Structures are given as C-alpha cells and as structure tokens.
Amino acid sequence: MRDHFEVGRYDAAGRLGELTVPRAGVTVETPALLPVVNPHVQTIEPSTLASEFGAEILITNSYILHQSDDLREPAERQGLHELLDFPGAIMTDSGSFQLAEYGEIDVTTEEILAFQREIGSDIGTPVDIPTPPDVARERAESELATTQERLEIADGVDTGEMLTTAPIQGSTYPDLRERAAEHAHGTDLDVFPVGAVVPLMNEYRYDDLADVVAACKRGLGEDAPVHLFGAGHPMMFAMAVALGCDLFDSAAYALYARDGRYLTVRGTEHLDDMDYFPCSCPVCVEYEPADLRAMDDQRGEDLLARHNLHVTYGEIRTIKQAIRDGDLMELVDSRARAHPTMLDGYRTLLDHAEQLETTDRIAKDTVFHTSTESARRPEVVRHHQRLDRFDLSGSILLTEGERDEEYDESWQVTPPFGPYPREMSDAYPFTAEVPERLSPQAYETAADGVARLAECNPDATVTLAQFEWPESALARVPDSVTVRHLGED
Question: In the UniProt entry, which residues are flagged as the active site (predicted)?
Fold first, then answer.
C-alpha cells in the first residue's frame, strides 16, 4: 500500500484525498490543480499563485532547466523552491513533452531523475514515450515496452524523499492502457499520470478520453493518485474527477490569455467579442472587457490569465464540494451540456457505470434525475445488480399505483430504478427527485429492472401495473411478466 495517499470520501470514482509530499513537508488536498510555471516566462509569479490563489502545488519543466545556460546553475545552487519562490510542493516534468513535440531529447531517465533530485524537486518524472492517439498497434506496443523499461529503471533510482511518477501510456488502446497501469502500479513508484492525452483534448475527443482514463483506472489500485497530464480546461474537470483523476496540470490559464481567450466552465470566449464579464472573480468585478482591450498587451494578458486561473481554481472547489455533498454526477451532467463533445464524454463515462459503482457511496442525499443520461447512473446500476438478493415466490405486483391485497407482495415500481419493496420508499436512492415528463430511456431502464427481478425469481408470478409506459419500454418486459395498464382498470 502507498501510505502517501489517503482517500477520505468518494462519489462515483471521484474522491477527496490527501497526497503527502514528504520532501516538501506538505499535504496536498485532492482533487488539485498544478499550475504550469515556465521557468523562463512567468505570467503569474509562483509566490502569487500561493498567496492569491491558494496553490499548494505547481509543476515546472526540469528538462528546460537542465538545458538552460541561464537557469541550470542557479537551479542547482539555490534549489527549485528558492529559484521559483514557492512554499508548496513542486512537481517537475522530464522532457517527455519536448520528446513528443520534437522527436528527441538528449537526456536519460537516470540523468533527469538525478537532476530533479539535485535541484530539489518534490515529485520527479522519468522519460517516458508519449504515444499519440490512433497510431498503429505495433507502434503503441513497442513504445509502451520502452516506457515500461524506463519505469523499471526509475524504480531502481535512489530519489531520496522525492516522489516519482509512473506515466501510463498505450495510445487509444484500452487494453494496452489497462496493462500499462497494472505494470506501473506493480512498481514502487508513487504518482500515476495518464500520458499523451493532450491531442484528445485538443480535438475535443472526450469520449475517447473517458475510455482511456477508465482503462487506466481498471489497472490501478485505489491507493494510486492519478494525474491527468495536460488537462487544463475547467469544462472537463468534473468528468475527469468522476472517472477517478486526482491531479490536473494547467498551462491553459496563461496560453489562452496570450491569445485573448477567456475561460469559463462552459467553454471559451474571445475577449474581442465580449461586452460583459459573466464572472465575479476580482478581475471581472473591477474591470470590463473594454478595459482589458485598452491596456497594453502585457497588462491585459496578465489580468486575463488571473481570471482564467480564478475560474479554474473555482471549478476545483466546486467539484470538491460536490463530492462532499454526494452530487458530483449532477455536476457532471450539468457540465456535459456545455458542448456536444462533452456530452459524448459523459455518455461514454456512463458506459463504465459498473466500474464507477464499485467506489460510489451507497448513501447520499436525494438523487436528481435531470436528463436522459441519469437513467444510467451508478445508483441505478447498483440497484439492478442487487435485485438478485431478493428471494420471492407467489404472486408479486410491481405497480406505479397503490398496494393490491390480491397479491402476496406488492412492490413499488418507479422509473428509472424499476421495482423495489415499498418499505424502501423513503430510503436512498428511491427518494430521487424526477420530472413529471420522463424520457423513454427512464422507462426502458425501469423495464430492465423488472426483467432482472423476474429472471432472479423464476418461481414467482410477476405482474407489472403501469401508467402508459412507451412501447420501447414494454418491449423489454419479458413474456413471463403480466402487464396491466392502470388507466384501463
């Protein structure tokens, strides 16, 4: 077990955790954002990240420092914390990004880990091979083998108190990602980044991203803190957290500001197209879009970067509160409406509902059934799985109406959950708030529950009494179940 990461509370696969970083002497609450700091050009000073934004951890690139004529010697002499003037934990990348961009770098895993330890990095990274999406399987397997060799090398390097990451590769092949995660988790390395996913996010392929993260999670233990490399847009944080990601590094706050782009949790706006700021962060309260446009480029860019970082940290806090309250999936549902591809990602996430259910809390506050997708949530999956716990015989009425004494037992049936004993009506999740006008999918899912109960209890005679269920739902009710239409009684 890894004793440097402790989970406090789950919602789906999202969790509130504590990552202890011994070399820095700090404990970072997760989910956590790691602002990317370019050691050459700092849009916002690292000390300001801590004082104004509450940053507990940041990430910078050790390869840039290693190759820099100006910064290498000061980094070695002063150490990263003094060089950057940052009191929290500092994670360093190894140059793998440069490898992906330019095809080669001139440093080995042993060399870069030794350098990271020397300059005082708190979390170091080996040189993995970032395999892009959609490559031939042969290439993905070959490059994964190289990454795994380098993880074995990293596992044998004496890094002292510095934690070391074990990047997970495998391109867009879920089985390779799962295998890579199992291998990484089998080492004594400490933090587990999901690598080479920036191209997926740049192309808005959130459905493929969900499959990649879910596969990685299947190969990891629950003691493994998961870092989603390069995930900087707050729009997708809630989905990634619900899948089980704990750490995010973002250069988007600065890169987007450089291009005059304004981040929101619903997408990105162009400053030139804005008349009003919809945000209440300090920047947006004090200034209007025209004010920033009238400033010199650097001043306007700095203020826009500050807004971008405020909204990004704000989303992390919103997610943490949602996990605490047990309504993370409602937040994911809401964020999924921001963009069609986010909805694709959410629907793909729900393809893994059985996986998410294994860590989802069994008791929360009221579930809100707010969309078609709500019928596929982990709570519904869990209820259907547990219908095999009932041993029924005789005549069983499953009804949307009142109890009928003509039957041996009379159960309630409510879309999307399906059948459940009346005694559980006041228990979670059957206290769910549902709209009057349900989607066909809610009824279809309820019908699946009816079929599951009938299948698990072949000696019982089951009757379903329902109000105007759509034909698509009734078609899923097995022939062994008698169907009554309550409006015709």
Answer: 93 (nucleophile)
The rounded distance, in Å, linking the Cα atoms of 178 and 169 is 9
H or E element at residue 199? helix 198-202
For residues 287-298, average pLDDT: 94
Residue 103's pLDDT is: 60
> Bridge partners of 9?
16
| 279 assigned to a ligand binding site | yes
Q: How confident is the model at residue 368 (pLDDT cuts 50, 70, 90)?
A: confident
Q: Please answer whether residues 248 and 228 qualify as being in contact, where contact means their C-beta atoms are separated by less than 8 angstroms.
A: yes
Integer-rounded Cα radius of gyration of the chain = 26
Mean pLDDT of the chain: 94
CA–CA distance, 6 with 369 (Å, rounded to integer): 31
Of the pLDDT bands very low, low, confident and very high (cuts 50, 70, 90), residue 94 is confident
Rounded Cα distance, 294 and 386, in Å: 62
pLDDT (0 to 100) of residue 12: 97
Cα–Cα–Cα angle for 369, 374, 377, rounded to 5 degrees:
120
Query: Would the pLDDT of 91 be above 60?
Result: yes
All domains of the chain in start order, with CATH: 3-349 (3.20.20.105), 361-483 (3.40.50)
Residue 484 CB contacts under 8 Å (≥ 6 apart), including other chains: 463, 464, 465, 466
For the residues 268-276, what does the mean pLDDT come to?
97
Q: How far is 280 from 293, CA to CA, in rounded Å?
A: 19
Residue 128 in marked binding region: yes
First to last CA, the chain: 60
Helices (H), 326-439: 328-335, 340-351, 353-357, 378-386
Q: How many residues does the chain have?
A: 489
223 has binding-site annotation: no
CB 477 within 8 A of CB 447: yes
- 281 known member of a binding site: yes
CA atoms 352, 357, 361, 364: torsion sign: positive
Mind giving me the DSSP string for 33-77? EEEB--SS--SS-HHHHHHHH---EEEEEHHHHHH-TTTHHHHHH
CA dist list (Å): 275 to 164, 258, 269, 292, 300: 46, 19, 11, 11, 15
Token representation of residue 228:
């989603």
pLDDT value of position 100: 57
Contact indicator for 12, 364 with CB cutoff of 8 Å: no
- pLDDT for the residue 133: 97
Confirm whether residue 284 is marked as ligand binding. yes
| CA–CA dist 388, 24 (Å, integer) | 50
